[in-house]
Amino acid sequence: VKPPPLEYHAPATVDEAVMLLAQLEDAKVLAGGQSLVPLLNFRLARPAHLVDVNRLDALAEITERDGGVAVGATVRQTDAERHPLLRERCPLVPLALRHVAHHVVRNRGTVCGSLAHADPAAELPAVLLALGGHVVARSARGVRTIEAADLFLGAFETALAADELIVEAWFPAHAPEDVALVEESRRHGDFAMAGVARWRERLALFGVAPTPVLADPARRLQPSADLEASAEFKVHLVEVLVERAKLVQTGPPHPNPPPRGGRGRGGREPAGDGFSVNGAGRARPSAPRRLLSDYLRAELGLTGTHVGCEHGVCGCCTVLLDGRPVRSCLMLAVQAEGHEVTTIEGLAPGGTTLHPVQRAFHECHGLQCGFCTPGFVLAVTGLLADNPTPSDHEIDEGIAGNLCRCTGYASIRRSVRRAAELLA
Amino acid sequence: MTTRWFGERVQRLEDDRLLRGRGRYTDDLDEGALHGCFVRSPFAHARITATDVEAARRVPGVVAVYTAADLPFGNLDLPLLIPHPALTHGRTQRCLASEVVRYAGEAVAFVVAEDRYVAEDAAELVDVAYEPLPAVVGPEAAGRAEHLVHTDVPDNVAAELAQERGDVEAALAAAPRRLDLRLRFERGAASPMEARAIWARWDEAERRLLVYDSTQSPTSIRGGLAVLFGLPETSVEVIAPDVGGGFGPKIMLFYPDELLVPFAAMRLGRPVKWTEDRAEHFTAVNHERAQVHHVRVGFDDAGVVQALEDDFLHDAGAYTPYGIILPLITAAQTTGPYRVPHYRTRFRDVYTNATPTSPYRGAGRPHGCFVMERVLDAVAAEVGLDRAEVRRRNFIQPDEFPWNTGIAWQDGSLAVYDSGNYPALLEECLRRLGPRPDGPGVGMGLGVYVEGTGVGPYEGAHVQVLVSGKVVAATGIPSQGQGHATVLAQVVADALGVDVTDVEVRSGDTRRFQWGVGTFASRGAVTAGNAMHAAAMRVAEKARRIASVHLEVDPEDLEMAGGMVRVRGAPDRAMPLAAAAILSNPLRYAFGGGAEMATQFQARPRPGPPLPEGEQPGLEATGFFSPEASTWASGCHAAYVRVDPRTYRLEILRYVVVHDCGRVINPLVLEGQIEGGVAQGVGGAYYERLAYDDDGQLRNASFMEFLVPYATEVPVPEIGHLETPSPLNPLGVKGAGEAGVIPVGAVIASAIEDALAVPVREMPLSPQRLYELSQQTDANR
Fold first, then answer.
1. Which positions 218-277 of A are in contact with B (Cβ < 8 Å)?
2. What's this model's pTM, rounded to 2 decimal places?
3. A340-386 confidence digits (pLDDT tens)
4. With an 8 Å Cβ cutoff, are A236 and B19 in contact?
5. Alpha helices (H) in A118-172, listed in sequence order
6. Phi and psi dihedrals of A82, rounded to 5?
7. Are the beta carbons of A405 and B680 separated by less than 8 Å?
């Protein structure tokens, strides 16, 4: 599955971005792309134009404002999850983010993008609703504030006009003991069958209606069944979760280490300079719809990056973008402009001694067929750079997001522990 | 002291390049290849009334668009791989459907373009008009036969087979107690991380076809392509390079692409490749697992089973390319390690409008194990005995081997267990499992199984000592991650007395070894392992023969160690293996590297011609192993789980495996096989289910919705080994590839039933299903 033909625009300013959205027929905003690019790959979305907002550094800030915290449009979920302002002033947001897919996805996905996508089973829309937050939308016509209660109109449907861009999401400040988030999902990181975000007595339910909804004993929920849960089971689950959400005492958030790696050169470089791969500045993709994974493999001959699903679940195509693991099948190659990409070939270049993570996988039999291995090795490299002494639970969470069908993960867990020793 | 590699935890020799991203998978080949893309049926059952490919052909960059009418083999039914007398109504699909499509995902047209992106653009423009027909969804609907999948197959029944040992009717009538159970298994998918891929190049000048294929059986593909294209087998080479997991469904003859890609390469004169994407993999590649069993069991007050009758439906899918192997295996393996003196099994293999089924790791065994273990849990509950005790009372005992089941095995003979010690497996497993954890919602589950492994007909191997002293070895069976390059090297290294790192094993490349069958049925270690052993022992014998002349000793007094052929008891009288390799080939011309010692004026004078009568040049040999019968591995799994009694979230607290696959070549590799198998079993027990709707549409054809577990869902099993060597092969080994997966469904079912006190009669389970079962149970209380 490959994206359909499209035109790609990478505005450098917010003004330019909203002008493009005003002028272009059938344009779609591309932020983290973790939901949009799979839809493009499956050709379930086929916009004529993509307006990539990732270069809008003005929107990359997290700031305290009006008794709450504002999160800009290009703030990655990983950065929000770790940001001191959010952890101290809006702990429900980082708490919820721990449930959003997996860390490799959160390295690229954005907070505002998740709100704009409006998946009925997503956590962040419910958080915004529970807290009574809002988004700020800009267009060539001006700026407006959309309250959470007015933003979500239906499944994957918001009050945003076609020419509007969410420039920030604003979450009211709250005490850690006043909030909770509980959900039931099938696998770690999956969209919830049902979930509850709580602020004091205010409960936003998700996964049980076309939009997040505030719990109202007077109103009977009528969820649509999905593959994993019938309407009746969803109602049952949400009853259980409401009880549990009231009991959960969240307490102060765990003091996560500050994020490492990061935006790197962050798209600040002018377009047209290409991007560096494994330390060599040689990449200049031309076809805008070509996925980074395909570009690396077919045009640069770096076939160590494997393609296993092209919808961002399996993790075989994981590469490091400015040091952080991301899915190369969920990025257009042109989006890598100005960044540093590291593929598996770049980890121990030229047949030199294996990188400690590679060595650990060898010692612990952490690979069988080898197809998922480059993705795992890079994901683990990113994980250990971020957290050099992960607990067993952190290892499991850190490697969830990459699928392996051969090893059963037992030997991969051992490999991660061994790699941590070798790197220490 | 001689190093012995057999039994050592040798770290894998194939890892380095895989870890560096230097593996070579089929999709990694390009060489200017054109790219293919399929147009597939969106309907489960429909008549094709018109096909228009003109718009697709006009897309710039499109080189060809093929429909059945464009193919010389367009009207050919693809081979029925394993015919069986009971398969009275076998049907196979055509390369591209032109009249009727019988499953969503069946190939209809094939686009070839300069680039996959363009091929996909063009495939969207192929206009096929369909007239939908009623879809037969699920084996029960097939059995009711209100609609037919094939108009010429009455009642949708492809095959029917009944077998019996003893007198079940009489034994059931005489049994003090009886139970009746209905058990169900849903469809699942192997889901290797690499989907399928094929690349082909036709060399017009040499009239040779070169094919890279992510297949589990390159030798068969080669034979088939040669026949189909009218080429000598010697002009077709098929290579299974690195393959990113197989687990069964990568063995077929043929998937449509395996013909179309070579055909297009020959027709277009350029390399052509096709790489399957994940979405199409879900419907284009064979599935497994759907069966519905109706069981009657008769037993006594002591919990001893006297008679078992099992009548089951097997969901063939739309075609039967792989014969009836799956239900045959289920039928043979259902009674597992238990005596069950009277046993009758009958199956009907029925057509449905869904992707065909063929073996996936376990291949009918998990179903049989699930049936028997559910039966024994029910018996235990009925007579008020501990579940383990009921198993003890029904086991075949260690002194009763060989044990003839009297039921047909997948190779046409009767299933006869060669060796084992089932009571010891159970006791060791329970000992390791330890005490039950505290807390609500905890359940214990248990399952014991046998596994027929190492099925024939044969495998072969070629071993050669190079003039450098390094050893190269080759076998026909490809690896999909099982570690052949290491495990087989261990066998060779022992026979030749060399370091394991000096042995390079290549597998699955017909250029290197053209004979063999394939990688399936947990057969690699038994068949290729013993073939390697045979070939390497011949090489060792020849090395001793050569060295004996030069060392002037009897070959019997020579041993192989440390890369030398040396006199037993006098290790200073020795010759490097490299020298024996040089001397094995009498030379006229010295080309360096020690070659002068084999030339005519240098070599030690010996009576007779330079190459003795009956000898061939080169220190090399070919060996084969053809088992007289399958080897039967066995094992016991046990687990503690916790199930949230309100959300039905499953937590596996502890999982123990005690396994017996005869002598173990490499425990590291073996444990990897078992751990991976357990994870697939857990997936199949609680997460993975192919969800078809009433129209026969697969609703979860993505990794978003088909829930292959992550690390967060899978336990780390504790593994113990028992070794009852097989008497049926020189190495004493049995297969292990499928062992990890077989009893997992039964164990999880048993544990959940114990935790929630709801009857579990189906696989897979899910929170949704446990909620429904709990509601029903509450309503009945």
1. 227-230, 233, 236-237, 240-241
2. 0.97
3. 999 999 999 887 899 999 999 999 999 999 999 999 999 999 999 99
4. no
5. 123-131, 148-151
6. -100, -5
7. yes
